[in-house]
Specification:
The structure is a single chain. By secondary structure, this protein is an alpha/beta fold. It has a domain of 252 residues: Helix Hairpins, CATH 1.10.287. Strands 1, 2, 4, 5, 6, 7 and 12 form a seven-stranded mixed sheet that branches. A six-stranded mixed sheet has the order 8-13-14-3-15-16. α6 runs antiparallel to α8, α7 crosses α8 and α9 packs across α10. It is rod-shaped. The two termini are 35 Å apart. The model has no long low-confidence stretch (mean pLDDT 79).
């Protein structure tokens, strides 16, 4: 809520006022009196025109300047300025029409200016006139319609109850708007808070995702190491069992290699012994027999034996031939005819030759037998050579077998060495696994602690996120419902109407009537209904007399003034033009009772009849001469 104090008005060339500077800050009741037509209302219209750009009679700008008969030679157009304070801060509002008066901030001859007197700046500089008017009304906290129905009770203004429902609704909506403007600020703040809370919640959710990722990694690590010591021990035992199995396998391989070595060594010893014997026999045979000589002898014996056999056969053939020669045969040697003497001689020679041949044959047979014996002996010796070759072959095989045995032994020795090394490695690995188990247990405990911490972090973040979500829901509700059209706004609208009716009831009772303004919610257009009761009897507003309607309108004026003053803006001034019009003495007294309630305000009442005025008031006499309207 704001306070607007109108202090002074400076009028030049407006209507019948040629030049007037008037101090409006006069708390109490100020009665403006004068004859009809002297320009009593011109002061009010100048104020209204300066603030809102029009008059209560809707006079166009071209008819506003001072009439030509009052202008004189020094007329410089229309200039109206109002000095005021808004919440204690001084401002000057200036409106001109075809102005030539000098003023520091005036640029256009026709326009509107609002000066911040402290900062010495024009708040409406380079702003379009329509926008300038909106800025000014925003500063004042009300527009022309609200001003006319709450601050300025004009003789020629439309009464609230005579105006369309749209105008009635607008007044209350304007009151609401100034409240809701704060609500809009609050709503914007709520929405901004919601965005901030959402952003913060998103940050927390991102943190949750990151921390849950770390938690998952820790849980995976924990599961990999073993969910607990027993699991870790099971894993270790499985690994140790595998190592023991491998050790047993290696030991078994070592045993087999060792046994193979033992067998190989025995076989090696046997083969060495055999090889030595074979080598000895070979040496003996080679030393005893000259196989080359024996072989030559055997060949010679065989040739000689064959030659003897051929000689024996030739001798036998010769004897046979001789014994078969007959007398008269032709000699196959000399070609002569064989005679009996020849036969006898030859026969005799043949017999002797046969005997000699037989003897030779016998000798040759003996010699052949001896040769045969020699051949048999040589053959046996040659057979021994074959045996020697066999022995040599066996000796070579024995050497190869020895080499193979030595290789086997070497391989088995290498296997034994490797087995020992692997067993040593497995034993060391066994010890390492025991150490790793202890380290794993430590890691498991550490990871358990880390998981607990991480779960606590995630839980804390989720709690924080839940708080944000709850706050976001809360802010959502206020943004969509609480501060929406069906929420606080509707409640405030109805509460304004309730406050208005409270004030209206109080003022109308003073004025001798019971009046209440309601809204007909049964109809789609929701029209305003004015309920008037005179001594408990319902009366339609339009059926009321002029005086009764005047009292109702005065009650509405003060009720609006009170509600506006309590809800949006407090004006230090009340302008009442012919407020007693149509009222009898009783009605006038009733109005004065109401006016007395606002003695701290500067109340200006226009009337041309002093008789209706009570004591304790300030009179302002208005007259008119050749210089225009004069306020005394």
């Amino acid at each position: 809520m704001r306070n607007v104090d109108i202090k002074q008005v400076d009028i030049k060339g407006f209507g019948s006022i040629l030049d007037l500077t008037y101090n409006l800050y006069r708390p109490g009741l100020n009665i403006i009196v004068g004859e009809n037509g002297v320009g009593k209302t011109t002061l009010f219209n100048a104020i209204f025109w300066c603030l809102f750009g029009r008059t209560t009679k809707n006079v166009v700008n071209s008819d506003i300047p001072t009439l030509k008969e009052y202008r004189g030679k020094g007329f410089k157009g229309t200039y109206v300025s109002i000095d005021m304070e808004i919440d204690g801060h001084p401002y000057k509002v200036v409106r001109t029409y075809r102005n030539k008066h000098s003023f520091p901030y005036l640029v256009d001859p026709s326009g509107l200016t609002m000066i911040d007197k402290v900062k010495e700046i024009d708040l409406l500089n380079e702003v379009k006139l329509a926008d300038s008017q909106r800025i000014l009304e925003s500063k004042l906290g009300m527009d022309a319609t609200t001003f006319q129905n709450s601050v300025f009770f004009g003789q020629n203004t439309d009464r609230l109850m005579d105006s369309p429902d749209g105008d009635k609704r607008k007044i209350f909506e304007d009151i609401l708007a100034h409240i809701v403007s704060d609500l809009d600020t609050i709503k914007n703040k709520v929405q901004e808070d919601r965005r901030e809370q959402t952003n913060e919640n998103n940050k927390v959710i991102n943190k949750i995702n990151r921390e849950e990722g770390r938690l998952t990694a820790l849980q995976d690590q924990y599961e990999h190491l073993g969910k607990d010591e027993e699991h870790a021990r099971e894993i270790l035992n499985a690994k140790l069992a595998e190592i023991n199995k491998r050790i047993d396998s290696e030991v078994d391989m070592g045993r087999r290699a060792k046994k193979s070595n033992e067998e190989a060594n025995k076989e090696y010893a046997r083969v060495v012994e055999v090889e030595a014997k074979i080598r000895q026999r070979i040496k003996m045979v080679e030393s005893k027999y000259n196989f080359r000589e024996i072989e030559e002898r055997y060949i010679n014996y065989s040739s000689e034996h064959q030659s003897l056999q051929r000689s024996i056969q030739q001798t036998r053939d010769t004897v046979t031939k001789i014994t078969t020669i007959n007398e008269g045969d032709t000699c196959t040697v000399c070609g002569s005819i064989v005679t009996s003497d020849t036969i006898e001689r030859v026969t005799k020679e043949a017999e002797e030759s046969a005997k000699e041949a037989e003897r030779q044959v016998q000798e040759m047979r003996k010699e052949m037998y001896q040769v045969k014996q020699n051949m048999e002996a040589a053959k046996k010796q040659l057979d021994i050579r074959n045996t020697l070759e066999t022995l040599k072959e066996k000796h070579r095989l024995a050497k190869d077998q020895l080499e193979s045995i030595r290789n086997t032994v070497e391989t088995n020795n290498y296997t034994l060495k490797t087995v020992k090394e692997r067993i040593q490695y497995l034993n060391e690995r066994y010890a390492e696994l025991e150490d790793e188990y202890e380290e794993t247990i430590k890691k498991i405990e550490h990871i358990k602690d880390e998981i607990d911490k991480q779960e606590a972090i995630v839980t804390e973040l989720k709690v924080e996120s839940k708080k944000y979500e709850d706050k976001i829901k809360y802010l959502d509700w206020w943004s969509r419902v609480g501060l929406g059209s069906g929420g606080v706004t509707t409640y405030l609208y109805e509460s304004i109407l309730v406050a208005f009716n409270k004030a209206l009831t109080r003022y109308s009772e003073v004025l001798g009537m019971a009046v209440r303004l309601t809204i007909d919610k049964t109809k789609k257009s929701r029209p305003f209904l004015l309920e008037c009761y005179d001594k408990g009897v319902y009366k339609n507003y339009k059926s009321l007399s002029g005086g009764e309607q005047q009292r109702v309108n005065i009650g509405i004026l003060f009720a609006l003034y009170e509600v506006i003053s309590s809800k949006t803006v407090t004006m230090n001034i009340l302008l009442l033009d012919e407020v007693f019009e149509g009222l009898d003495e009783v009605g006038t007294s009733m109005v004065f009772e109401i006016i007395k309630m606002y003695q701290d305000k500067s109340i200006y009442v226009i009337t041309h009849n002093k008789d209706k005025v009570t004591d304790g008031v300030e009179f302002i006499q208005v007259t008119k001469d050749d210089n225009g309207t004069i306020y005394d």
